[in-house]
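Handout, section B. The chain below has 245 residues.
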Amino acid sequence: MAESHATLRVCALYPDLMNIYADRGNLLLLERRCAWRGLGFELSSAGLGEELDPDSADIFYIGGGQDRDQSLCARDLASVKRDALHAAAARGAVILAVCGGYQLLGHSYQLEDETLPGVGLVDLETVRSDGRRLIGNVAIEVELSPGERRVLAGFENHAGRTVLATGTTPLGRVLRGHGNNGSDGYEGVRAGSVIGTYLHGPLLPKNAWFGDWLIRTALELPELTPLEDRLEDAAHAEARRAAGV
């Protein structure tokens, strides 16, 4: 098959700072599922102050971080990596951002008396709320392919309230949990191959099918060789059970 000659290139942004929500588990799942299929896998990273080559990866990944680290990364994204990320998105590279990384995809993140700049890839804004944190198991219904609805399940823990601008497409509809802001019934964002979500725990080991979709989309493959997924399916079922769906 064509996939046997392909290599998935993944670039993790700020892996030393934005990695508090089992983000390495997401990268490990991508690596393992490529290896089981005979696909090549290359992992690179880009830290503070490092220029980003928009053609260097098929998937650019941004995880979650503490407020101080997120502030450092926000300014670096806006000043050093902004143009490269926009160029990568324009050519169809996958950009996956989780939790803190998701909050930086939009225009800004109001963090108490500090406004963090966003990279402006999607039309949204986030505000830190004085109210209760949105914490717990969460499940959302997504439609990544026309007519094919699936459930993503994970865990959320965020004080930020994210609001999508009119016309901006959410990643999915909340079945259980809080989602972007606890009130509008939506979770995450999707703009072409740019995806942001609050789901972690980590996201991909609980939703291996979604990891496969990312691989297939990034490599522009029509299909992937099926794998023996009993353990992955069990993890997904447990995540859904915990979320109550």
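Note. The first strand starts at residue 7 and ends at 13. Compare this with the example in section A.
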